[in-house]
Amino acid sequence: MRFFGRLSGLRGAALKNRINELLDLVGLSKARNRRLGTYSKGMLQRIGLAQALIHDPRLVVLDEPTAGVDPAGSRDIRDLILDLKGRGITVLLSSHLLAQAQEICDRVGILADGVLVREGHLQELIAIENQTELVITDASDELIQEMESIIKRSNAKLVERRKSTTTLERLFLEATKTDKRMTKSE
Amino acid sequence: MAAVDDSQFVIPLSFDIRASSFAGLMETRYRPFSFWRIRAITANTLTELTRLKVFYVLLVFALVLIGSSIFMAQFSFQQEFQILKDVSLGAISLFTSLLAIVATARLLPQDIEDRTLYTILAKPVPRFEYVLGRITGVLLLLAISTLLMAAAFALVLYLREQAVVHTTLRQMSGAPPDQIADALRVVRSSAFNTNIFPGIAIIYLKACLLAALTLFVSTFATSNIFTIVVMAFIYFIGHLQATTREYWLQEHGGGVITRVFLAIVTLLFPDLQAFNLVDDIVAGTAISLVVFAKTAVLGLFYTTIYTLLATFAFYGKEL
Q1: Is A175's Cβ below 8 Å from some Cβ in B?
Q2: How many beta-carbon contacts under 8 Å exist across A and B?
Q3: Which of A69, A120, B159, B225 fits A42 for a cystine, CB–CB 3.0-4.6 Å?
Q4: Which positions in chain B touch A53 (Cβ < 8 Å)?
Q5: Which residues are CB-neighbours of B239 under 8 A, at least 6 positions away?
């Protein structure tokens, strides 16, 4: 961190403060004196992100930032990227993990054989114009049947009726969190 | 994905993470040339190199060789001092040259392999600053190791001189004081002479030249082994360059192919034999200031030229 800070023109107290600030940001303050060789993959990605931010850039380009990282580490990096976004930093993310890109990005571009084949706001690109989704909580069977009969009477067509689901990632994070809590209490 | 090498001071990244050069900080702080950036790369290079086991292996080997010359067979003290200087200066020359090649050959390939190069160049660091920082780091390492070896050599020489002085005093205990003083003067002039230090400086400059040339070769080499092999050839050809130059400059020498070959060797390879002043030092021949200055300028000239060539080649390298 010190080396990359010096390369960016930082010195003395300003460099020290910036390092402390970034280690806090990426959640590695407690691991600051550990050797990099003992870092997990996710920690390495986060320290890499910290060194890239040392000179307070307006634009950060990330290529597969969560490749090879476990779901919890991946979530940490995702949160960091969203944090950068909140701070007004533009993040250009290149990824094959489309679900993750969908979760993070405001605008997307799709490259095929080196050609930009789609580009624009994510919600506009993935919206299906002639379909609408309603997510209802605590709906009774009668209410659902009534809604279906209204749909039947109109020109519209009910394409699919299903229970809302969580994502596998959220399930994993929830399960491992619960598991850790139980292990601790034992 | 790059493996994590915990011996590295810099952070190895397993993904490209590049901060834009349009950063807010740099709007106010960016300079096309920065001494501080070069100093940071130099310090980083020195740290990396001093963590290399090969550095200590070579240094210990050289120090052991220099130290072992204290146990040379007992000839006349003049011969003993000559052998001691010959072995020690030879060892310093060989090990600084080896260190220059081995240490420099790995720098660029290693930086590319662990992707450190990309993270450095993603910062506001022009490529020439990277090359300058790296070569300065190597030259500092060579200076440190040359000083250590020179100190060991001076210590061994001093110890042997003291031993000979004591023996002479014991043997001449009944002799008149002026005879004793003459004998001691002969012993001291045989051990230390002012040629030793310029000689060591020239050995250092030769190592600097080899380091700069190795860096140049490594900019287009595919691996550090390839660089080392090429440098081994250059090292041997460089010692024959003076001979090929003489043949090339002779009007009547050989056919066209031979002359082209001689011209290539003469123009492309450095004259390493010009840096071989050890024989003069051992023989006690005085190295004139003119010879020293010419050789030093030649060394600095070669080092500068090869560093410039390395910089140009590095600018053209696709990363």
Answers
A1: no
A2: 121
A3: A69
A4: 19
A5: B272, B273, B276
